[in-house]
């Protein structure tokens, strides 16, 4: 409870979690400050849900400590959990309760003073757009509305820390947009951590990314930082018209130094699509197009593709990058 | 305390939101009603002509004892079927629906969750017991000689027995994700306890004594014949709190089990 962690609302201190012989989390540490929306990114089974469940106080870690607003979550669970809102991965709420009734129930359990309960619940329903379904049974709501009820219950008692496990999974595109807007709106003055395996979501919503794989943090930083880190890699896509030219084109491309992952596929329009990664700093497009034209190959398209988080992630997973990174600033 | 009551209220209300709760209530009242009517009619039949049934002096048998004594003894058999159904949803259903997960992340202790649920279930059981008072009214109204002590003690015993069985059922419910498995498991446990009485009846000496002391029915019988003893009270309280303790330990296993 020293003053040094008072600026970070969430502090995960060398957390490990074992299920029997299975090591779900291995020495995971991070901090999240007020106003930050942090994306917790990783493939299925990476340990995201385990980490978030520990953070939500569902179960304790095998070793390590969690601080919520400087309070040790497992030493002072009552006080710490009061500052915490949690949306589980599969939002399962009592189907036999009505929305308003359920949220008032949650308010009681979270210890909202009984005089304020009604107004408090009313506010949260308005914020999450639930006012018109107040009297409907949760079991009869659409998935999108149920997700909103889930977010509303997390918001009850004004927690300063929000833990959202895959908040947009299973929703249709319109609902996803609405939920993202809602998360952005409630993210002010709070620390939000949300897990996802949808990469674009992170660049849209989060100011910072934590990448996790096999129970370890691979990298942490802003989306821009991670992109900069892999700036020396880029992907070039090109299309050529004639199938007969494919072999020559591939042979020519192989002559360039530093080209990796060369792939050629035939599209439905009988054109050949070629893509490759390059580590070269200069723009190869000019050289390539010139060379191909000189060899009478009809090049109809060539473009440089900016790296997506997906590429970054795959790049980090490659052994070399991982080793380079694991000792870094996490 | 407010939190415990909130959980208890939700648990209690959930019985009225499902056909299982309502159906269990209806069946309980129906079958107990049949028991009562049959016992009263039996008494009437025997008392008309005791000699025919090999009884020389029927007036020595108390009406209350004949009707309500047997009534409460029969009811304990009903409990064997009712308790598994009442408790199967408490934790198993919540684990199946995964509604328990959120509950564990609220500022609540495991004890508040368990005692709240237990309380809600006991409330529903008590609501089912209320109409039994109607049988007493009917008995009085048709001119029965009413002996208050044994009858009220019979009620009290039935309440204790029900609480004890419900606590065992809630514990079994924490062990599985499947309500049906929970119901079958609870039924098996209760039948096992029921067999204790039977074993005690056919075993002599120290073993007979041990089984008799362990059997909830032997302790319950004292109530229905109008005996209130500290021993029986302690037995049922121990039974109840022992299973409450096991329930608490059981939901703690989430700390190290995979799911």
Short key terms for the protein model shown above:
heterodimer; A: 330 residues; alpha/beta; Rossmann fold; Alpha-Beta Plaits; four-stranded antiparallel sheet; 28% strand; disordered C terminus; B: 259 residues; mainly alpha; 12 helices; 0% strand; globular
Protein model, in words:
The complex is a heterodimer of chains A (330) and B (259). Chain A has 330 residues and is α/β, with parallel strands linked by helices. Chain A folds into two domains: 3-228, P-loop containing nucleotide triphosphate hydrolases (Rossmann fold), CATH 3.40.50.300; 234-306, ACT domain (Alpha-Beta Plaits, 2-Layer Sandwich), CATH 3.30.70.260. Chain A has twelve helices and 14 strands. Chain A has a six-stranded mixed sheet, with helices on both faces. In chain A, strands 2-1-4-5 form a four-stranded antiparallel sheet. In chain A, a hairpin with a 5-residue loop joins strand 12 (259-266) and strand 13 (272-278). The longest helix of chain A has 14 residues, at 114-127. With 259 residues, chain B is mainly alpha-helical. Chain B has one domain. Helices cover 80% and strands 0% of the residues of chain B. Chain B contains twelve helices and no strands. In chain B, helix 3 (63-87) runs parallel beside helix 8 and helix 6 (110-129) packs across helix 8 (148-174). The longest helix of chain B is centred in the first third of the chain and has 30 residues, at 19-48. Chain B is globular. The chains are: A alpha/beta (330), B mainly alpha (259). Chains A and B meet through helix 2 and helix 3 of A and helix 1 and helix 5 of B.
